[in-house]
Amino acid sequence: MKKQQNNIKNLEIIRHSLSHLLAMAILEIFPKAKPGVGPAIENGFYYDFDDIEVGEKDLPKIEKRMRELIKKGLNFKKQNISTTEAKKIFKNQPYKLELIKDIQKEKDKISIYQSGYFIDLCKGPHIKNTKEINLDAFKLTKIAGAYWRGDEKNKMLSRIYGVAFNSKKELNEYLEMIKEAEKRDYRKLGKELDLFHIDETVGLGLPLWHPKGALLWRIIEDFWHKKHLENEYELVRSPHIGNRILWETSGHWNFYNASMYPPLEVGQTLEEKQQNKKAKNSEEYLLKPMNCPFHVKIYENSPKSYRDLPIRWAECGTVYRFEKRGELSGLTRVRGFTQDDAHIICPKNQVEKELKRVIDFIEFIYNSFGFKMENVYVYLSLRDPKNKKKYAGNDAGWKFTESILRKVAKEKKLNFKEEIGEAAFYGPKLDFKIKDVLGREWQCSTLQFDFNLPERFNMSFINEKNKKERPYMLHRALFGSFERFIGLLIEHFAGAFPLWLAPVQVEILPISQKQESYGKKILEALKKENIRAEMNNPNETLSKRIREAEIKKIPYVLVVGDKEIKNKTASIRHYRRGQEPEIKIEKLIEKIKKEIEDKAI
Q: Any residues with CB less than 8 A from the CB of 458 and at least 6 apart, and which?
């Protein structure tokens, strides 16, 4: 284990050193470039530059120069210097001068690393000599835009990425994985399968779902509703906006307002807005970032007894969070998304049982969509005891909720690790991350323990002793959000959804116009049995239509000609299994219905 940790640390140092060599090569090829920063990252490194016109076509030339520099056997030498010296060395580098000012404020030492003639502002550590780098184990991969210091108010720089490993074999394996990732990219497949798109005119981070994408969503949501009702949940619905007073009471406006949209003032005239005057009867509303306060208000609408508990309320509720432009990413990071939300309200003596029920439900959902729990990694997110101001609630509440989550995670034998400082402001949580076929982790399910909202809203129930008692509240989502989960499903199945999930399950291809009438009869028979089917009329060649069906990754393609009409059959091409024997239409319908019912993956 210790050897493995040392290898990881050494590789990280090599990656950091490669970022310096990248900067060195860039300044030789593009002397006017202004360097930003160049850290090691997961699987590689990058370096940011301003005043540079560089494209993907330049990467081989830059990479070649890096290899030439490595062969020179350059040493990396560290030196601590004064602020005056630092400003002198980097006098023509504005980004380095900005960093020097920050170092001054923190009263940290200023250190530089020199390799050959190249000097960089850096804490290190670095390798001793470039001969430690395997020439065949790194590669420059892409160029992207990146705001200086991650702030969209700053200038966008050119970021050059590279990857690096211990051996050529590891590098090649990684590059093959990247190729596979590109083939599975949900943004590419989403376009090919005509599922969704994002239009800047509508707004960044606000996906538009096309008919087939909306149908896929509905199939998943119908399954979700059915299984929640079977698991003794009740369904509720809540509005998209709520009075500011609600969010102040819940604590969201105090602890979470940086991620919320600004208040909407209702009842204020345009003239009053222009003069920055507050209207007498105006009200302030906020787009909801979460559903929980609404569920609390439903609870408060009528008195509750211990006999009513536990209450399990579920809602597919769309929420809105102001994510920075630079942080938005396809379906995985959006500004408007639908949580498959639920809140469980129960007394203290039911908490452990309810937590375990949720974990079992999460496992069932993952298995249903082809994910195994051995590929799920769980993170127990705890409060940072050194920064309690970030969190609501008292020490006793945090101690109890953190300990019970830890106990349940151990008893359910979850593959979990603890993360200090990652708790929600209202309580600790268990985050479930799926490791996909490419080894990447996706945040999906979450199970959060909340003792703060019951206190803030003074929630209560009448216990067995006929006295008021405060309940606990569990927040949980199984998919996390529909948007992210659908993105994950697209990549997991590489767009080839199992039959029960496929928006189009069967496509019928008459060989010519002569067979159209027979094709329509098959189409009607399939639709009568609620099988999602389409017919592609013979305006194009059969081979072209078969190819189009393959691109759309439709599970069953039925080819019908004169022979099939005579035999009352269809020839089957299955997307995964290939050519299958000719089959009677009645038998085919039975076969398809059975496969849908079994939800085979």
A: none
